[in-house]
């Protein structure tokens, strides 16, 4: 069983978890994962909308956890100054964007711009294509045919870095598409109902026959589990 303990439906990390699950699900099945559950810190309608927006497969079981109880029980990062009730949760979130209480935020964001020669871009291309088919912008990274299939990826044509596993700006382009077309565009429908979940991050656990095979806890915004690392652990 693979359990994703996700943040709120509008959160960058949750959206990336959904995008990666969509791409990696066949590989996870091949590794013996028979059931995938995803607890999301939002109301049921928000969870279902997120699933529709990113094309999450129907066999990923969504669980609405509006108060984020399961994540806190698992020990996920609660963000910057989570017990300070006198501080606006939006100020706490802004602090996290600067790395406060979530130290890997800035490195993770920066790598989206710089690329990684040994990275993997399959899930990024698949998510960009899904976003373009849904009419989200930026929509110039990929050329799609009439069936919506990718016929050309503009990042392949970049000089010197076109052969990298993950090219400069490739992941940043997807995150911009996600921010504008999902998180901000549908904020009123996706936002958490519990302010504690505005800054609470997520994590992943894999259990087989009662044994914990793998665990991960996000330690920053845009710093979610590397699914290649997850596959290698199975």
Structure write-up:
This protein has 234 residues and is α/β, with parallel strands linked by helices. The chain has helices at residues 12-30, 44-54, 69-74, 89-97, 105-114, 122-133, 170-184, 187-190, 227-233; strands at residues 2-5, 36-40, 60-64, 142-144, 150-153, 203-208, 211-217. The strands form 2 sheets. Strands 3-2-1-6-7 form a 5-stranded mixed β-sheet. The protein has a two-stranded antiparallel ribbon with strand order 4-5. Strand 1, helix 1 (12-30) and strand 2 form a beta-alpha-beta unit.
Write the layout of secondary structure elements.
Blueprint: E1 2-5, H1 12-30, E2 36-40, H2 44-54, E3 60-64, H3 69-74, H4 89-97, H5 105-114, H6 122-133, E4 142-144, E5 150-153, H7 170-184, H8 187-190, E6 203-208, E7 211-217, H9 227-233
Parallel strand pairs: 1-2, 2-3
Antiparallel strand pairs: 1-6, 4-5, 6-7
Which key features would you list for this structure?
alpha/beta, five-stranded mixed β-sheet, 234 residues, two-stranded antiparallel sheet, 15% strand, 7 strands, 9 helices
Main beta sheet: 5 strands, mixed
Q: How would you write the strand order of the largest sheet?
A: 3-2-1-6-7
Annotation, overall tally of beta strands: 7
Strand content: 5-15%
Tally of helical segments = 9
Mean pLDDT: 98
- Distance between termini? 11 Å
Q: If you compute it from the alpha carbons, what radius of gyration comes out, rounded to the nearest whole angstrom?
A: 17 Å
- The ordered H/E elements are EHEHEHHHHEEHHEEH
Summing up helix and strand content along with how strands pair, one would put the structural category as: alpha/beta
Q: Could you state the oligomeric state of the chains shown?
A: single chain
Helix percent reads 25-40%
What is the global morphology?
Answer: globular
Contiguous uncertain segments of 5+ residues: none
């Amino acid at each position: 069983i693979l359990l994703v303990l996700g943040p709120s439906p509008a959160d960058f990390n949750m959206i990336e978890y959904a995008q990666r699950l969509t791409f990696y699900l066949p590989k996870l099945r091949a590794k013996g994962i028979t059931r995938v559950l995803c607890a999301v810190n939002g109301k049921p309608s928000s969870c279902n909308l997120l699933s529709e927006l990113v094309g999450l497969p129907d066999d990923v079981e969504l669980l609405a956890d509006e108060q984020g109880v399961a994540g806190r029980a698992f020990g996920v990062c609660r963000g910057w100054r989570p017990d300070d009730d006198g501080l606006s949760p939006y100020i706490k979130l802004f602090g996290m964007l600067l790395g406060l209480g979530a130290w890997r935020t800035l490195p993770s964001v920066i790598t989206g711009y710089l690329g990684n020669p040994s990275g993997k871009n399959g899930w990024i291309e698949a998510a960009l294509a899904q976003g373009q088919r849904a009419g989200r912008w930026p929509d110039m990274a990929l050329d799609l045919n009439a069936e919506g299939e990718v016929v050309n990826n503009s990042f392949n044509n970049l000089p010197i870095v076109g052969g990298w596993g993950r090219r400069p700006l490739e992941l940043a382009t997807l995150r911009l598409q996600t921010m504008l077309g999902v998180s901000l565009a549908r904020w009123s429908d996706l936002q958490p109902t519990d302010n504690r979940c505005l800054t609470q991050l997520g994590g992943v656990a894999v259990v087989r026959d009662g044994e914990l095979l793998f665990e991960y806890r996000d330690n920053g915004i845009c710093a979610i589990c590397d699914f290649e690392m997850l596959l290698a652990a199975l």
